[in-house]
């Protein structure tokens, strides 16, 4: 399966990493009969999108009202849904083997629209807000990653200053962006971009931080890796980093709603992928 699912900073967050969190409910999401399931997005209705592996290929899915629906872009050999807004529009990525290319897509009102950044080798769509604005990243002919937004039909390329590569993942209704930038150290540094202003998102003690999702309250979710090889999910809220974890699992949060509900994936002790919805 494809995991879909990622500097000069003006503000650097150096706050404590809090290891406790309020009581929440975890809903485990497994597509029936699948080899593995990943979840990348949810909305205020708690509709969930993601991907599942079956028979060596990958299909996107929507989970709505307890019912799974498979989503396959026509002509695609692989499809993964990465985001869903409150209207039920779905964004994602698909792959065509004959082309050897990844494309972004938007599914709206039952119709698919392909999203390709002009001149790009690959285009990956990760974020979709309630205004229909899209965020993601593209790969150019030199194999360099650049972030981009698609707002009102207009593409804008976004590169974090001094970064070797930039990945954009989340976008909220205010146009705030979350993502990761790779510096000269070749490590991922999380960030939030608000009206052109960059804020460093760095989990204390981590070697790399990936900021994957942002809501309208500017709460950020993501995951971090450490020197000992361990990985942990996090929520950055009200100036604090809150660790997100499940016993025996590696958590990868991808999205957060305005209610604080978090969706993502984890790998269990048997190395099987599962989706989750953490209801606040």
Task: Give a written overview of the molecule.
- The protein has 280 residues and is mainly β.
- The chain is 0% helix and 56% strand.
- The chain is built from no helices and 26 strands.
- It has strands at residues 11-12, 17-18, 25-29, 36-42, 48-54, 57-64, 67-71, 78-84, 90-96, 101-108, 111-115, 122-128, 134-139, 145-151, 154-158, 165-171, 177-182, 188-194, 197-201, 208-214, 220-225, 231-237, 240-244, 250-256, 262-267, 273-279.
- The protein is globular.
- The relative contact order is 0.18.
Strand content: over 45%
Shape annotation: globular
Could you name the CATH homologous superfamily?
Answer: TolB, C-terminal domain
Give the averaged pLDDT, no decimals. Answer: 91
CATH class: Mainly Beta
Series of H and E elements: EEEEEEEEEEEEEEEEEEEEEEEEEE
The major beta sheet can be summarized as: 5 strands, mixed
């Amino acid at each position: 399966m494809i995991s879909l699912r990622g500097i000069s900073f003006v503000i650097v967050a150096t706050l404590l990493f809090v290891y406790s969190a309020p009581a929440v409910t975890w809903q485990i999401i497994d597509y029936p009969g699948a080899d593995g399931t990943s979840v990348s997005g949810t909305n205020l209705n708690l509709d969930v999108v993601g991907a599942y592996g079956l028979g060596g290929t990958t299909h996107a899915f929507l989970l709505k009202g307890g019912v799974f629906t498979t989503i396959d872009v026509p002509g695609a050999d692989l499809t993964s849904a990465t985001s869903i807004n409150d209207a039920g529009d779905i964004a994602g990525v698909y792959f065509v083997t004959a082309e050897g290319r990844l494309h972004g897509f938007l599914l709206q009102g039952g119709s698919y629209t392909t999203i390709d950044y002009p001149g790009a080798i690959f285009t990956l769509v990760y974020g979709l807000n309630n205004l229909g604005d899209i965020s993601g990243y593209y790969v150019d002919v030199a194999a360099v990653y650049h972030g981009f937004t698609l707002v009102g039909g207009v593409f804008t390329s976004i590169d974090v200053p001094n970064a070797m590569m930039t990945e954009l993942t989340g976008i909220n209704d205010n146009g705030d962006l979350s993502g990761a930038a790779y510096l000269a150290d070749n490590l991922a540094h999380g960030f939030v971009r608000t009206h052109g202003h960059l804020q460093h998102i760095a989990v204390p003690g981590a070697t790399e931080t990936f900021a994957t999702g942002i809501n309208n309250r500017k709460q950020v979710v993501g995951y971090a890796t450490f020197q000992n090889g361990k990985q942990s999910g996090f929520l950055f809220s009200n100036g604090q980093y809150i660790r997100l974890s499940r016993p025996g699992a590696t958590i990868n949060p991808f999205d957060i709603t305005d209610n604080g509900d978090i969706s993502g994936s984890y790998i269990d002790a048997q190395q099987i992928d599962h989706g989750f919805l953490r209801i606040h």
